[in-house]
Each structure stands twice: as structure tokens, then as C-alpha cells.
Specification:
644 residues; eight-stranded mixed β-sheet; 21 helices; binds 5'-O-[(S)-ethoxy(hydroxy)phosphoryl]adenosine; AMP-binding_CS; acetylation; ligase; Ac_CoA_lig; nucleotide-binding
Length: 644
């Protein structure tokens, strides 16, 4: 890089005096956290309403399973709904819902309280009691949020399964958590047409012994199959139930939800989150990182509730802070590429939180589209899910943020529960592409294999060296895997291994460099290479498969697969590739479909039989091959390349 380019890369964007003057966050946060970290979290927990106090902020004696706010009791839904009503804000809009076909609904906090109470009464009538699990398989409609909050209200543990996942994926999650109730819809709107969802739900629950009822919201009005006794319509049950319900408090460590995420093996992990610590950090980060001002701001997080971002930054963080937010059901280009900007303009969105992959898509569509709209309401922009490249960062700030809105690049994970590393708007001078620094109260290190801390400039592994309130409490049904996955790499030090590479630059700004394990990041979605490999080898034509994430301009990474066919299987070319891609969609989800599949005669393996994905990535990205000296047969690449 030339020094001019380097200067450009290192350009710093200090906060404006005007923003700083009214910012929620100030330097005192870091000072307080530095002075006494646990006292700092004790203070933050008081953002919430507790039914009974805690005796200890953190009990780490059973590490790596933490107990935060020991003995404290609260109701999460009460904190997200009732208390705003009790404080006199019942008429404030909680949710501006924008349906894909153009239908709209606004729910105030009074409305939300009535809806959540009705759903809670129905769930109770169905015989569900605290500790039971409920699966939620729904598009982005208000009932999905109501269902989550009704679970929270009753101490039921929800497991939200992304509506884009297949029936197979849903079934394995229902079985793993032994869910008793499934909440779903008849169909969902996708690009102007209704797409069935109950059909997939039916397939998933056939033979699923734990499921007692399927509760169905009528969203599109399409025909559905009906199983009497098991299936119930939302409008015939929830909508007719009493809207009076008194929330009971639960222990701070009561499990709030399970959310499945991809790891390095084929089987998704059910990440467990609990109540008091999770809500504390969700609320604290939403308030300070997004500079959210209740009653004034209009907030929009474009995630889906099927992912952790939807849990923490659509449901729990924002609602605990009395937000007014937009919830949009559809895709950004339905009916055309103006949709997001129309929504921003229509509702006066002031805080907009999305993923780099969408920003890059907007760039591709061209700035004439956002430029055709009045986006002057925007005062803060957020990014999440993958590293944001400096070019996209600058475009985001200039085109969407009128060259003035601060950008918060927020690093966190399903496992961390809430934002961990991010600039604080009004406090931190930012650099395009850098997540800057751990938040006050959070501690992170960048280390090498031997646990030595790296100085500025060295690439290493990101570890979290202190427990944090929203941390996962384990993997559902598999505490050994919890220990093994996150805590064995730096067992001696007792550090959490995040699975990401990172570095500090010369000025001490933190850069997250991407996954260092076999997890791919496609459009901000976590997908494991081995999950796609197992889906491929479950097809009768495939003997062996190797999957890698190759750099992709828009989606961050794209899935590239190499397969060896079984003996006597004919390679039908495009037809076979299509069959295999469809098969992956059925086994996992359309989002896991490989971008490219090559049929190869052999896969590059080490002498110990390990597939060398690093070399396959070189091939997929069109690079010169790296070190092939440990390969059994380097000539295998001539064959692989010849085919591409
Ligand atoms: C990646 C999403 C760079 C990272 C909240 C992490 C990021 C994984 C960022 C977690 C960011 C998330 N910069 N990388 N700002 N945010 N990641 O569990 O690799 O879906 O480990 O949680 O996304 O993905 P998950």
C-alpha cells in the first residue's frame, strides 16, 4: 500500500461536538468500569425493574457457567412491556409494522401488553408451565414478538427457528429442545406472493413426540392442512383470551431462550441464555451504543428474529428501553430497491442497524436510489454480522448518513448475547472497518497460540478474558461440548475463545478479521462447512464432499463445494449440480445452497486423512496454491483445476 492509501485507511472520524453534547454515553462509563467492573454491572442492572434484589453480582465459582445477579428475581416481559405502561407511556408506539404487501399496523405499549397477556393466558390454558420449551417458526410479524414475550412472561424457554430454515432443520431443533408447542403461520409473504410455512411445520412435527400443539397465525390466508386436536388458530384462541395477566418474577438465571447456531461440527448448538444478566447487557448496550432516546427516536434493526440480532436488538434490548421501532416483514427489493429508503422516510427512522452485506448490495444498486429519498431523519448507523470493509463503511456514512451520522460497527456473537466490541457514539473517534474497542465493562485480549498477548500490529485470536452478564450459560443438552468448544483452547487461563481472528493496529484500534475455524459467514449468516458437507453426502449421488467459504464481493463469503461422486453415478452436469443445491436447501435452508459445486475425482488430503480446506479455498478464490508439501498427492489439483 502507498502511504497515501495508508493515510486514507487510517482516517479517523472524531465525534461531532453536537453529538457528544447530547450523547447517552460519556467517558465516565469507562472510568467507572475500570474502577470496579462488578460495581459497574451492578449499576447497569438497576436500569431494570427487579422484584427482589441480588445478593452477589457475579458467582464464577462454577466456571465456565456463570451466575449473574445471584438470587435476584425479575420478569423479562414485565421489563419490556408493563413498566412502560405503568410509567405512563402506554400510548407510545412500540412497533410500526410494515407488511411486505403494504399492510401496516401500529402497536402501542398498551396494545403490546394486551396482546402479550392474551398469548400468555392461552399458553397457560394449553398446560405450559415455566421451564417448558416453545418453538417459534415465523416471519417478521408482530405476533412473533408477542409469542416470544409471552414465553418470557411465563418463564417458558423459547427456541426461535428462522422461517427460512427447512422442515428438517426445524425438526432437529424441536427434538433437541423437546418443545411442547410450535407457533407458526399459514404462510409468509415473499416477493409479492404467499409462500407456505405451515406445510413445512406439519412435516417437521409429524412424529415429533414432544409437540402437543401447533398454534397458527393466519397471515396470508392460503389453504393449510389441519390436524384436529393438535392445531389451533391464533385468532380463535389468543385473540379471544383475556387481556389481563399478572407477570410472576423468575430467578435471574432462569433460562430465557435457546438459539441454535452453527459450530464446527455438523450438529447445530443450542446456545442457552438466561434472564437477568442477558437483559441487563441488552438494555445497557442498546441505550449507549445506539444512543437511543425513548419517545424521540425511531429505531430500525433490519435483522430477522430467527437470529440473535433479532432477539437482542429487536425484542429485548429495544423494548426494555421503551423504543418506538419499525418491524418490516419483507426483502429490501420488494416490490423494488426503494423499499428500505421509503420506510426510513415514511416513519422518520433515526437509528438504522443492518449488515454489511446489505450495504454492499445498496452500493451495487447505486446511490441514485437512496438519493431519491429524504433520509435526513437518520442520526446514527449500525453494522453487524461480519467485518465491514472500509469502502462500504464510507459509502454508508456518506450516502445514508449524510456524512455526519456516526457508525457503530458492533462485534458480538450468538454466544455473547449482546454487543461486546463497538465504538461509543459521541465518545469514540472511529476508523472505517474497525470495531474499535471493547465496551466499558467488557474485557478482551488478542493472543497467539501460546496465550501471549500481541502488541499492536500482530494478528491473533480474539479471547474474552472476563465473564460478562449476557454470556451464554451452556449448550442445551451438551455441557461437555460447551466446555470443549469455548473453554478448552485457553483452559489454563480460563479464557473464552471466540473463534475470530483480530488485531490491534498501530493506534490501538481493534480490527476483527473473520473466523479462524470452519464456520463460514454468508451474508452475515453463520453456516458451518461440515453442516453443508453432511447435507451433501446425505445425497445418494455423493461419496465425499469438501466445502469452503470463498471471498465474495457482496455476501462476504460464498459457499463453494467440491464433491466426489459414488461409483456408477453418472455426472449429468448442470442437472446434478441443481439437484445437489436443492438437496442442501431441503436439508438445511436455501441460504446454505452452495454458490458453486464442482465434481472432482479426488480431494486434497494430508497424510492423516484431513481435507486441506485452505488449499481448496485457494482454488476457489483463484489464487496460487499455498504450501502443498503435506499433501499425499499434489497432482490432485491439476485435476480439480482442469474442471473449473
Ligand atoms: C462475525 C451475530 C466482524 C464474527 C451478532 C462472529 C463480526 C460471528 C461482526 C457471530 C463485526 C459479527 N465485525 N465480524 N462487527 N459481528 N461478526 O453468532 O465472525 O450470527 O464470530 O452473531 O459473526 O455470528 P452470530
Amino acid at each position: 500500500m502507498t502511504s497515501a492509501a495508508q493515510d486514507h485507511e487510517q482516517q479517523v472520524y472524531p465525534p461531532s461536538a453536537a453529538f457528544t453534547a447530547t450523547a447517552n454515553a460519556g467517558p465516565e462509563l469507562q472510568a467507572a468500569a475500570d474502577a470496579d467492573r462488578l460495581a459497574f454491572w451492578d449499576t447497569q442492572a438497576r436500569r431494570l425493574d427487579w422484584a427482589s434484589p441480588w445478593s452477589e453480582v457475579l458467582d464464577w465459582s462454577d466456571a465456565p457457567v456463570a451466575k449473574w445477579f445471584v438470587g435476584g428475581e425479575l420478569n423479562v416481559a414485565y421489563n419490556c412491556v408493563d413498566r412502560h405502561v405503568l410509567a405512563g407511556n402506554g400510548d407510545r408506539v412500540a412497533i410500526h409494522f410494515e407488511g411486505e404487501p403494504g399492510d401496516t399496523r401500529s402497536l402501542t405499549y398498551n396494545d403490546l401488553l394486551a396482546e402479550v397477556s392474551k398469548a400468555a393466558n392461552t399458553f397457560t390454558e394449553l398446560g405450559l408451565v415455566a421451564g417448558d420449551r416453545v418453538a417459534i417458526y415465523m416471519p417478521m410479524i408482530p405476533e412473533a414478538i408477542v409469542a416470544m414475550l409471552a414465553c418470557a412472561r411465563l418463564g417458558l424457554t423459547h427456541s426461535v427457528v428462522f422461517g427460512g430454515f427447512s422442515s428438517h432443520a426445524l425438526r432437529s431443533r424441536i427434538d433437541d429442545a423437546q418443545a411442547k408447542l410450535l407457533v407458526t403461520v399459514d404462510g409468509q409473504w415473499r416477493r409479492g406472493a404467499p409462500a407456505p410455512l405451515k406445510a413445512a411445520a406439519d412435516e417437521a412435527v409429524t412424529g415429533a413426540e414432544s409437540i402437543q400443539h401447533v398454534l397458527v397465525v393466519k397471515r396470508t390466508g392460503i389453504d393449510v392442512e389441519w390436524t384436529e386436536g393438535r392445531d389451533l388458530w391464533w385468532h380463535e384462541t389468543v385473540e379471544k383470551a383475556s387481556d389481563q395477566h399478572t407477570a410472576q418474577p423468575f430467578d435471574a438465571e432462569h433460562p430465557l431462550f435457546i438459539l441454535y447456531t452453527s459450530g464446527t461440527t455438523g450438529k447445530p448448538k443450542g446456545i442457552i441464555h438466561t434472564s437477568g444478566g442477558y437483559l441487563t447487557q441488552a438494555s445497557y448496550t442498546h441505550h449507549n451504543v445506539f444512543d437511543h432516546k425513548p419517545g424521540t427516536d425511531v429505531y430500525w434493526c433490519t435483522a430477522d428474529i430467527g437470529w440473535v440480532t433479532g432477539h437482542t436488538y429487536i425484542v429485548y434490548g429495544p423494548l426494555s428501553n421503551g423504543v418506538t421501532q419499525v418491524v418490516y416483514e419483507g426483502t429490501p427489493n420488494s416490490p423494488n430497491e426503494h423499499r428500505h429508503f421509503e420506510i426510513i422516510e415514511k416513519y422518520g427512522v433515526s437509528i438504522y442497524y443492518t449488515a454489511p452485506t446489505l450495504i454492499r448490495t445498496f452500493m451495487k444498486w447505486g446511490r441514485a436510489i437512496p438519493d431519491a429519498h429524504d433520509l435526513s431523519s437518520i442520526r446514527l448507523l449500525g453494522s453487524v454480522g461480519e467485518p465491514i470493509n472500509p469502502e462500504a463503511w464510507r459509502w454508508y456514512r456518506e450516502v445514508i448518513g449524510a456524512n455526519s451520522a456516526p457508525i457503530v460497527d458492533t462485534w458480538w456473537q450468538t454466544e455473547t448475547g449482546a454487543i461486546m466490541i463497538s465504538p461509543l457514539p459521541g465518545v469514540t473517534a472511529t476508523k472505517p472497518g474497525s470495531a474499535m474497542a471493547p465496551l466499558p465493562g467488557i474485557s478482551a485480549k488478542i493472543v497467539d497460540d501460546e496465550a501471549h498477548e500481541l502488541g499492536h500490529g500482530g494478528n491473533g485470536y480474539l479471547v474474552l478474558d472476563q465473564p460478562w452478564p449476557a454470556m451464554l450459560r451452556g449448550i442445551w443438552g451438551d455441557m461437555d461440548r460447551y466446555q470443549q468448544t469455548y473453554w478448552s483452547r485457553y483452559a489454563e487461563q480460563g479464557w473464552y475463545f471466540a473463534g475470530d481472528g483480530a488485531k490491534y493496529d498501530e493506534d490501538g484500534a481493534l480490527w476483527v478479521l473473520g473466523r479462524v475455524d470452519d464456520v463460514m459467514n454468508v451474508s452475515g449468516h453463520r453456516i458451518s462447512t461440515s453442516e453443508v458437507e453432511s447435507a451433501l453426502v446425505s445425497h445418494p449421488a455423493v461419496a465425499e464432499a469438501a466445502v469452503v467459504g470463498a471471498a465474495d464481493e457482496t455476501t462476504g463469503q460464498g459457499i463453494v463445494a467440491f464433491v466426489i461422486l459414488r461409483e456408477n453415478v453418472e455426472n449429468t452436469g448442470d442437472q446434478l449440480v441443481k439437484d445437489l443445491r436443492d438437496h442442501v436447501a431441503v436439508e438445511i435452508s436455501p441460504i446454505a445452497k452452495p454458490r458453486q459445486i464442482s465434481v472432482v475425482p479426488e480431494l486434497p488430503k494430508t497424510r492423516s486423512g484431513k481435507i486441506m480446506r485452505r488449499l481448496l479455498r485457494d482454488v476457489a478464490e483463484g489464487r496460487e496454491l499455498g504450501d502443498t508439501s503435506t499433501l499425499v498427492d499434489p497432482a490432485v489439483f491439476d485435476a480439480i483445476r482442469g474442471l473449473r
